[in-house]
Specification:
The protein is mainly alpha-helical. It is flat and about 50 Å long. 67% of the residues lie in helices and 0% in strands.
């Protein structure tokens, strides 16, 4: 049997908001679906690979595009202040640079040129 710890005795940093965790998991799953149907969509002309167009893929992309990222930004913003208070400014920024900026830079500087080259867009 799982032991339950009363919230009053749990440090505030360890208390999870299950509802927001579930929203975040659902949004990440929808991001995966959103990017998966891009190959079958006509509304993503910049996508690296295209297969047969499929109307449902266009509808899915248009519907998910409206709310998906704003919800993820809201959830991230909700948890940003407690994280900032816990880590301090410089540790918070260092963590965000390592977790966000480094993967983004690798994708833009290494992965995307390889994709564009394979499509014949680069000499």
């Amino acid at each position: 049997m799982v032991a339950c710890t009363p919230i009053a005795s749990t440090p505030i940093a360890l208390v999870r908001v299950a509802f927001l965790d579930h929203i975040r998991y659902l949004m990440v799953l929808l991001v995966v679906i959103y990017h998966s149907v891009a190959a079958y969509s006509t509304v993503a002309p910049h996508w690296a690979y295209h297969d047969t167009s499929f109307l449902a893929a266009d509808i899915i992309r248009e519907l998910l595009d409206v709310f998906m990222m704003p919800v993820l930004f809201f959830v991230a913003g909700y948890f940003a202040l407690p994280s900032l208070e816990k880590k301090g400014l410089w540790a918070f920024l260092k963590d965000k640079i390592a977790r966000l900026l480094v993967p983004w830079a690798l994708a833009v500087l290494i992965f995307m040129p390889l994709v564009l080259y394979s499509k014949g867009c680069l000499p």
